[in-house]
Design brief:
The protein is α/β, with parallel strands linked by helices and 484 residues long. The protein is built from 14 helices and 16 strands. β2, α5 and β3 form a beta-alpha-beta unit. The longest helix has 36 residues. It starts with a strand and ends with a helix. The N terminus is likely disordered.
Length: 484
């Protein structure tokens, strides 16, 4: 899933919030300068109403003029013009309001003009300072992995353009030349990593979030390659000079570096939607970590008594677009479980080996198979049946490796067996729960059905779907507990 490059208010909500504070500060200072610092404008009905008017005017002008478009790329002169337009718009709307309510004679013109002057100066200075803070923050944040597809003669300019205009949002993972095989060569410190013929296989095996296609106008990208890339779940950006008809469900026009591109992906999410999803993850992660701490008090002695060793189990899993991370669980298996897995592959209920499921798993702590064939459950079984082993993953959610709702992250050996369309299930962050977990989970042994459900989740994603699946997960867990 790709974050839609939303414009205006949603994209720069932090700047808007800051601007609202500045205009209110300017309003208060202007009143105090005119009437004295021992009085308050909020005790006077005319001025307290005006305080709301300037706030609403500020929002209206911001939206109407799209005042924060390309704010991070504006130089000081352009910032003066943008801030001046904002201040003039607020003054015009405030004046219209005063005339409309017939209060222009009662409201101090000195206060109004002083407020606008202070707002202009404060906003200009604070914007410049905050832009530097945002750019540093973007540079220090976890960048998205970008693969560049271009020609050998354009490569250097494309790389420099992306480095200088992306503010650290992208980590260039490699280059692919459309006009020759130059694997191993480097351009401005970036290596040519594969050929056009093998690009899909490379994307399937390495951590790549997005692909930027910027080549000479005369070059026509093979349609099959574009479609295959989108099928894997990565986001594809193509220069608008190219006449293509990709199969991506969602398409938007945006800026990448200095290029105007057509972006295609399986689905899109606005900045506000992603903020809401991340907020839900943070709240759920905090609650989950607290519960994990409480469970540790009770589970740690049981696990150590039955199987000495670490209480927690960490395993490398494959996350969004192939990024490897460590996923944490309460240990429900013996320490040598990973080594014994190879011996048990013949008993795997999933015939193609894309997942691993057993009717009786001797690696589970305390589990025994009696002579008559019945299985005696152990501590590990109860931990797994009640999904208690999953709780440490809330720490992964807080870290940002996972989400509350998503697709289950595969192990490295499972990932290496993935075909092209399987990779699409990790176009988003993996989750603790998801579509297939709430639709049969242990009963589903057909991996293609898992992929179908995960792909359906990605294509239909919205915040209400996440909430629905979370509630459904709770119901499923309680049903399992009641049937034990």
């Amino acid at each position: 899933m790709y974050r839609k490059g939303s414009k205006g208010l949603l994209k720069h909500w932090d700047f808007v919030f800051l601007d609202l504070l500045i205009i209110q500060l300017a309003f208060w200072l202007a009143y105090c300068i005119r009437h004295g610092f021992y009085s308050s404008p909020y005790e006077n009905e005319l001025y307290s109403n005006m305080a709301w008017v300037v706030e609403l005017s500020c929002v209206f002008v911001t939206v109407f003029t799209n005042n924060y478009k390309n704010v991070l790329k504006r130089d000081f002169f352009k910032e003066i013009i943008a801030t001046g337009i904002q201040a003039f718009g607020v003054m015009a709307l405030s004046t219209i309001y005063l005339f409309s309510v017939k209060s222009s004679a009662e409201f101090s013109r000195v206060t109004l003009y002083t407020m606008i002057g202070l707002y202009f100066l404060l906003s200009l200075v604070i914007r410049q300072f905050y832009k530097k803070v945002v750019i540093v923050k973007l540079s220090n944040s976890s960048p998205r992995s970008m693969l560049i597809v271009t020609s050998s003669n354009m490569a250097e300019s494309v790389v420099k353009n992306l480095k200088s205009n992306s503010f650290g949002q992208f980590a260039i993972s490699g280059l692919v030349f459309v006009d020759k095989d130059a694997v191993g060569e480097t351009v401005d410190g970036v290596s040519v990593v594969t050929t056009m013929e093998n690009i899909t296989d490379y994307v399937c095996r390495e951590w790549v979030d997005e692909v930027l296609m910027a080549s000479p106008r005369e070059y026509i990208y093979p349609q099959s390659i574009i479609n295959n890339l989108i099928t894997t779940g990565v986001t594809v950006h193509m220069a608008l000079s190219k006449e293509v008809d990709p199969i991506g469900n969602k398409q938007i026009v945006e800026k990448i570096g200095g290029y105007t591109v057509l972006t295609s992906s399986m689905n899109t999410a606005s900045g506000a939607q992603l903020v809401a999803k991340r907020l839900l993850d943070i709240i759920g992660g905090i609650i989950g970590c607290i519960i994990t701490g409480i469970l540790y008090i009770f589970l740690a002695p049981l696990i150590k008594r039955e199987s000495p060793g670490n209480v927690f189990f960490a395993q490398e899993r494959v996350g969004r677009n192939g990024k490897v991370f460590k996923m944490y669980k309460f240990r429900s298996m013996y320490p040598d479980a990973e080594e014994r897995k190879k011996e048990l592959m013949e008993q795997n209920r999933v015939s193609d080996g894309m997942m691993f499921k057993l009717d009786f798993d001797p690696r589970i702590i305390g589990a025994k198979q009696l002579p008559d064939g019945t299985v005696k459950k152990g501590v590990g079984n109860y931990i797994r049946d009640l999904s208690l082993d999953e709780f440490p993953q809330f720490f992964n959610v807080l870290k940002g490796d996972m989400s509350l709702v998503g697709t289950r992250p595969p192990t490295l050996d499972e990932w290496n067996k993935y075909e092209l369309h399987h990779r699409a299930r990790l176009a988003i962050k993996p989750g603790i729960t998801g579509m297939w977990q709430t639709n049969g989970r242990s009963n589903i042994t057909d991996f293609e059905e898992v992929v179908r459900l995960d792909t359906e989740y990605i294509n239909e994603w919205n915040l209400l779907l996440d909430i629905k699946l979370l509630l459904k997960t709770v119901i499923v867990v309680f049903k399992k507990e009641g049937s034990m």
